[in-house]
Structure formats: C-alpha cells, structure tokens
Specification:
222 residues; alpha+beta; two-stranded antiparallel sheet; 7 helices; 6 strands; elongated
C-alpha cells in the first residue's frame, strides 16, 4: 500500500538531503515547472537559472539605488562643508546671521530663510534677528525636540521672511546652546513647493543644520 506523500515532508527531505539531485541528476531535466514569465514550461535547471537571474536583477537595482543615495549624500556633505566654512570665516559677530542665512539659500537652494534670537545680547538688540517674537512662538519653539516640517498653516515664523512669499511648506528648527538649556531662537526655512518640507520627511540633516547654527550663534547671546 502506498500513502499520499506530504509536500512539506518532501521539501524537508530534499532540504536535509542536498546530495539527492547529485545522485539522481537525470531528474533535473525531467522535472518541469511553469515559469512566471510567459507561462512557459521549464526544466528544474532552467527554472533555477531564471530565479538566479531575477535575484541578480533585483540586486543590481538595489545597488543602483544605493549608489544614487551615496552620490546624493556626498553632494549634501560637500554643501554642508562649504556652508560651515563660510560660518567660520565670518569676520564679525553681526555678520554671522547674514552669512548663515545666505549660505542656506545659496548652498541648499532654500528659497526663503529667516532667523530670530530672543536671548540676544544688548549690543545686538537693534538688529533684524533680535526683532520681537510673541510668547506663543517662543513656547512653540521650546516644545520642539526635532525640527518641525509640514504645511504652512499661517505660522508666525512665516512672517519673518524679508518678503511675504506664498510659502506652502515650512521647516522650523529650534536653536539651543546645550541639551539642558532652553531654546534661545529659531531658524525657519520656507518654500512655495508644498512637497519641499513634509511631515513624513527625514529630519537628520535638518538637525545637523540646527545644531551647527546653534553653536555658531551662541556668540550673540547675552
């Protein structure tokens, strides 16, 4: 008597007996499988080659994507280095905010950028970056643990730009001199493109911009 073989048991047996097809090589040409490409019937060997070709194609696509990302990250790193170098070369404290804002616009193609510092030293109280900021805006900045990115819902910070553009998306970066210290200001980036700054975008790079800006601007604090 014979009993119906269980497919799982057969698969387990073949997995535990890798020499099976070496001992029964003639089966490789006899076993026929359907192909996902065109519905053709293939031998086991042909099917294996087809699977391997698909794996290679997938790996090539993945490698191309990783290469693209590496190139983009390299370009960003170059721009970040140029921007940081400009900050280090700023000739005096009062020029620093201009250099910072202009560098962001130029190096990173940010259409609109603005800055406010509400703990600026008295010597800088007359400057544009020390202009009055509402208590609500300060509370909002203090509530940010990471940069805020998303749609511009008429935020006060959007009014800090030199012009009043039709900003559709916005990024707000809190500035603080240390992890334990409070927020002393905020850097704001804006774009007419609603997809430039979105709520689901990665903020790692913006965090670096915020940290570097915070470190550079501490010389202006009281």
């Amino acid at each position: 008597m014979t009993s119906k073989l269980d497919a799982g048991a057969i698969a387990e047996y073949l997995e535990q007996t890798p020499q099976f097809f070496e001992e029964h090589a003639e089966l490789l040409g006899k076993i026929k499988l359907s192909s996902a490409l065109g519905g053709r019937t293939l031998s086991l060997q042909e099917r294996q080659m087809e699977v391997l070709r698909q794996k290679v194609k997938t790996m090539e696509m993945r490698l191309a994507e990783l290469t693209r990302l590496a190139q983009e990250n390299h370009a960003i790193a170059e721009k970040f280095q140029q921007w940081t170098r400009a900050l280090l070369l700023a000739r005096n404290d009062v020029d620093l905010p201009h250099v910072l804002i202009d560098g962001l616009k130029t190096n990173f193609s940010v259409p609109h950028a603005a800055l406010r510092i509400w703990q600026a030293a008295p010597d800088f109280s007359h400057t544009w970056f020390a202009a009055p900021v509402s208590e609500d805006a300060r509370l909002f900045a203090n509530s940010l643990h990471v940069p805020f990115c998303g749609r511009n819902d008429a935020y006060e910070a959007a009014s800090w730009f030199d012009e009043l553009p039709a900003v559709q998306s916005i990024a707000m970066l809190p500035l603080q001199s240390g992890a334990a210290s409070g927020v002393f200001g905020m850097l704001v980036l804006g774009s007419a493109d609603p997809q430039r700054f979105t709520a689901d975008m990665a903020t790692d790079f913006l965090v670096q911009i915020g940290n570097t800006s915070s470190a550079a601007l501490t010389c202006l604090l009281e």
